[in-house]
Write a structure and sequence with these properties.
This protein is of the alpha+beta class and 403 residues long. Helix content is 49%, strand content 14%.
Length: 403
């Protein structure tokens, strides 16, 4: 019978032996109809030891609740025995891991790994996989406090280093080229989601200037920035409302060629890739217009593609730019006007602003914003977006500030 059932049985209003139940008024009463709360109980505190229940006599004055308390206390008091056994198990497991490390790597490989761990600086350690940030600092601190690592097993004493982590770190030290290839593949995969068509990361990192281009249904805006994030040119141009009805291709060519003649040259031309869904039939005329403009910009700006096969015109995901600047609300991107105004102010007030505007152009740009108050503020959205896209391109694709 369980402890709970035994205790419940003891509370039944049935005659009990004098040795167990006593009345305050008549100690010799062996049964009766007195309330259970008028009785005090001398029960046995049950403890399981060696598979058997043992009873320990408890004084008459000890209440039922005190008995329960003592039972729980005894149970808690015996808990550390399990902790001791788990600690000993951990020690055995650590020893097995240390032996496994010795079996995984030859003596020459272990010597090479230990040489790197005992001599490399914090910056040199961070070049290896899984040794960024706290882990490299932990290695340096452990080395300074306890001296050089004598074997691979001693790495188990460094905080945050477990068997699996140590194996990965050792492999990255022995095969740095393999780790670089993996990292490069991962970077290219992330870059492919951001920019189309696929392009070598080395070419992007060598870029000295980009021209960011954003086009809508009535105007095209562009921003020219160098790799110091200095705004060299920033303006927009209106064109016909080509989306209203069908126009011949020759008219498109004339309008777009006229706009391109005003654009400065750059190492790369980055076009905004819109996120409009083709499944929405009501937006088909707008989508068709955007695709025509995009195709013409690719053809007219990629002047050397037939000779060298190198892409100089790229498309950048619009929502990726919105996420970079936290302008997304669900799937909708909000206006970047306030953020651009903030960049303008910081360019004047801060010594090292995120974006630098030439002092002689700051007044002009501020006047340009003041003339774009409602209801005409929507006419500047392409202008805001072109600047934000240029900044995001440098920070995400060239400098890779989020890796």
């Amino acid at each position: 019978m369980s402890l709970h059932l035994m205790l419940l049985a003891s509370l039944r209003e049935e005659p009990r032996p004098d040795a167990l139940w006593r009345s305050k008024q008549d100690p010799e009463v062996s049964g009766g109809s007195l309330s259970r709360w008028d009785w005090r109980m001398s029960v046995s505190c049950l403890l399981k030891a060696g598979g058997r229940w043992r009873s320990f006599p408890v004084p008459v004055e000890l209440s039922l609740f005190q008995t329960l308390h003592n039972f729980c206390y005894r149970k808690k008091f015996t808990a550390p025995e399990k902790t001791i056994s788990s600690v000993s198990f951990y020690d055995e497991n650590a020893k097995e891991s240390g032996n496994a490390l010795d079996k995984l790597f030859s003596s020459e490989q272990q010597a090479s790994i230990l040489h790197v761990l005992n001599t490399a600086s914090n910056k040199e350690l961070e070049a290896f996989k899984l040794l960024h940030g706290k882990k490299s600092i932990s290695i340096i601190e452990h080395r300074e406090k306890f001296g050089p690592f004598q074997d691979l097993e001693s790495l188990m004493n460094v905080p945050s280093f477990q068997f699996k982590t140590i194996v990965q770190v050792c492999n990255s030290i022995l095969c740095p080229e393999g780790e670089k290839k993996k990292r490069k593949l991962q970077e290219n995969r992330l870059l492919g989601k951001l920019i189309k068509p696929d392009i070598e990361r080395e070419r992007l990192k060598a870029a000295n200037s980009i021209l960011s281009i954003v086009f809508g249904t009535q105007r095209i805006a562009w921003a020219l920035l160098d790799r110091k994030l200095t705004v060299l040119d920033w303006q927009q141009s209106d064109y016909w409302k080509l989306v209203n009805r069908t126009y011949p291709s020759s008219l498109y060519l004339k309008e777009i060629s006229s706009v391109i003649s005003k654009m400065p040259k750059a190492d790369f031309y980055v076009l905004e890739k819109t996120g409009l869904s083709i499944q929405n039939s009501s937006l088909f005329p707008v989508l068709l217009h955007f695709h025509i403009i995009e195709a013409m910009l690719y053809a007219l700006l990629n002047k050397t593609f037939t000779q060298d096969g190198q892409h100089h015109v790229l498309s950048m995901n619009r929502n990726a730019v919105g996420k970079h600047f936290k302008l997304m609300i669900g799937d909708t991107r909000t206006s970047g006007k306030e953020l651009v105004k903030q960049f303008l102010s910081e360019s004047v007030l801060k010594a090292n602003p995120r974006v630098f505007f030439p002092p002689d152009r700051v007044v002009h740009y501020r006047q340009m914003f003041s003339s774009a108050d409602p209801p005409d503020s929507h006419r500047r959205e392409e202008l805001y977006d072109s600047l934000l896209q240029a900044i995001a391109f440098y920070e995400l694709a060239v400098f890779d500030t989020e890796s």
